[in-house]
From TrEMBL:
Taxonomic lineage: Bacteria, Bacillati, Actinomycetota, Actinomycetes, Streptosporangiales
Subunit structure: The complex is composed of two ATP-binding proteins (LsrA), two transmembrane proteins (LsrC and LsrD) and a solute-binding protein (LsrB).
Protein name: Autoinducer 2 import system permease protein LsrC
Sequence intervals crossing the membrane: 29-46, 58-77, 108-134, 181-200, 230-250, 262-279, 286-305, 311-331
Function, in words: Part of the ABC transporter complex LsrABCD involved in autoinducer 2 (AI-2) import. Probably responsible for the translocation of the substrate across the membrane.
Pfam family of the protein (one): BPD_transp_2
Organism expressing this protein natively: Sphaerisporangium flaviroseum
Compartment annotation: Cell membrane
Keyword Cell membrane: yes
Chief location bin: membrane
Protein topology in the membrane: Multi-pass membrane protein
Keywords of the record: Cell inner membrane, Cell membrane, Membrane, Transmembrane, Transmembrane helix, Transport
Amino acid sequence: MTAVGAVDGAVAGRSARGIVELVFRARELSLVVALTALVLVTTAVNPNFLSGQGVKDIFLNTSILALLAVGQSLVVITRNIDLSVGSVVGLVAFCTGKFLAADPGGRGVVVALVLGITIGAVCGLVNGLLVSFLRVPALVVTLGTLYVIQGLDHYIAHGQQINAVNLPPALLHLGNEGVLGVPYLPIITVVVMLATGYYLRSYPSGRDFYAIGSSPEAARLAGVPVRRRILAAYLFSGALAGLAGVLWLARFGTVVADSARGWELLVVSAVVVGGVAIVGGVGTVYGAALGAMLLTTIGSALVVLKVNSFWQQALTGALLLLAITVDRVLAVRVTRLLRRRNARHGA
């Protein structure tokens, strides 16, 4: 009877998780519907919104935010958060720009990418070690490193500015050109997103992240190396923030010490709006990327419609509150469902 009860409980748990995944899949579909409606309405008011340049700008502006959202997704899935990503982007953009400006003819794009990813990975490693092995709360750690990295960035910059004329043409080409009319930045983001999504879905170590987010204690008892996985999540998030910093430099050319300041909250908003549960264990990188595209498109649409930029922040906040509320309601209902099924099987 005990074995039968355990099997029934496992089946019930899988069914509940199936319901959760179904609901969050529906949320991703609702994002597509909302995005389509927004584009159609804005285009009806201003047909230039879907011009070739308009579409290109939306994809370029979405790329960096979506890349950061992919890295943040792994952290949030493990029931943690990384508030330092915006500061890492700013630090990497300036340091890489200063490095390249010293010898624009002799240092190429590959060197810039390696340098940027390395700086970002080191920042992620510090966050991961403090959160996973020293067990300091993620909010405290990443808020602290946010200010430390900002201070370091300002110290290195000393009020200087990196200008596009001092950068290698190949780097600027990466940020503003493309292949067959498709910019390089969205291509890079899509490749990273698909590879990450495939890994999370297809490999046991990838599914460990979801197990940790669902129940860290249960994951530990099941033999999941919880600390190493959380460290890996922060390392990955930091590396992608470093990559995003180089792409930021390539996209805009001119950078100062506080580039991407405040983007950490925008990244978290994109992830949560995209269906990654703030309590961990549920969500996909595809949904996070859709959330980034929705927020970016809202900003572009408001500019086209000549609406005050305040409303972009208000809408972002409203969407974030709505997503968290939905997550909470869903968690409560799933908990009740599990209790009912367990009680029924126990009886």
